[in-house]
Amino acid sequence: MSTPASLLFRKLDGLFSVYKPQGVHWKLVRDTIETNLLKAVNSCPAAPPRCTVQFQLLPSGDGSSSSQLTVTKTSLPALADHPLVTGPRFHKIRVGVGHRLDAFSSGVLVLGLGNGNTALESLYRSHVTREYTLEGELGMATDDFTNTGRVIERSTFDHVTNDKLDRVLAMIQGANQKALITYSHVDLSTQEAYELAVKGLLRPLDKSPPILTGLRCLCFKPPLFTLEVQCVNESQRFLRKLVHEVGLELRTNAVCTKVRRTRDGPFKMEDALSRHHWTADDIIPAIANFRCTTRKIRKNDINRQIVKQSDSSTQTQGQTRTSTCQSESASKEKAGSLSPPSEMSDSSPLGGALFMNSYDINTKKKLRLKCHQTDHAIAYTLGFMGYKRHSSEENAFREAYQQHSRLYPNYGVAQGMNGQLWWTSLVKSTFSQCGVQDPDLLATLANNLYYNFSGPENWEVFPDSNSTLKSCTALGLKQGVVSNFDRRLDGILQGCGLRTHFSFLLTSEDAAVAKPNPDIFAQALKKAGVPAKYVVHVGDHYINDYLTSRALGIQGYLLDRHGLQTHLDIPPQHRLQSLDELPARLLQET
Length: 590
What we know:
alpha/beta, six-stranded parallel beta sheet, 43% helix, 19% strand, pseudouridine synthase activity, Haloacid dehalogenase-like hydrolase domain-containing protein 3, HAD-like_sf, HAD-SF_hydro_IA, RNA binding
């Protein structure tokens, strides 16, 4: 027979998440929840006490006045079952804790009850991605990387800008992307690895060092800044040290003021129960909401263990064929045979794909020079309209561009904007600062400037572009463009006579992400239908093009036309002074 307490125990079986406040140890959170659950279970109505049969001498009930006693059978409750004797019926409920948070940190903490404790182990082995929000402060360093530690150094930070911070974060993320590929132990030449990379599902196969899968700046108000981090196998000390290392890369110091976990695998901040809801009445619905997720976690872990066992057995069987394979490969090398391009051999990039940066092929006006040309156009327009020109007005566009890029990155796609709205809003803001207040005139000027850069008139093709693109086509390469530009790029390339060379274009506006975010390269790989190891990327930006592509396993080349790139970690064979060098370089790699 089921009792209310047993029914309650059946419901307290699974995973749920709570919000751990800062300054509270995770053990106190666990003990508080355990105490609340024990109170709820012990408050359930208990089963009726056992009855004992006793024979007692009681006065006869015949109504006579005699004092005769009669042996009477009576049923009495057993005092041994009384709550005052037994005390609480339940003394322990095992509450399992997932990836823990130290006292300095706050955020989502996953807990398990009943079979949920087994699911917690499966969740740990699956190496799920966790998201954090890190708040830092520039200007000092402490012994424990927090703002409450002992100060060991102070420094200035006036030279730190948002752009410098973004470059440092991109460099760190690129290095970690390469580590993720290394520890995932997947063969990048397989279709499975390609699909995992496109979906962002690459995970370390076994225990690995902490790896960052995403890193960006959410807010920069010196000396304070906020970072968003996605990572696996991390610790909170590692994250605090990350803030410290970011400060060192910026030639200053930084301490971490807050660590908040916003997601732990499928458990998000909005799913976490606050302190006032750590009761059975709120925990039971939370467990029910994630019951399907809990089953899926355990099922995936079982499948992963099966695959791992099969891989180990396959590896054992494969050792018997190692000598034969080595002899066959040696004979092929002696014969000097090369795989045809259609087979996409490991040693040859031919038959793969070539990604180009649009500013390297179709213009001598890169983004910063394009802005320079645009602010001259604005200054000329102001003079033509009779407005007095000042040097501050000529710099207004450049300043407005930087501000717009910070407030609405990547043409404001995340805020519901598009390239045209972004540029026209930018131009209107610039003209308004220069004294133009007529709304109709502002709209006309903004639209005219936008369309002036939509055709080939203001763009110039590099002399080596056409010849190189034709040579790469002859080599059997599928060519595409990956660019931090808006949707006007298609028309510009058509007007410049370059569009026919490319099988696809991918702008940051269409991709909804911009370089150095690896997602834009993942989308390009999907469009090309070629694994990363058979892809070549040419670009002129050290972080956006070279580091990011190399971190993803793409053969990246840095185009340095004027010899201004002084990075020492780029070997000579990865540098190009002209696009004309590319076909010969690709043939040398075969």
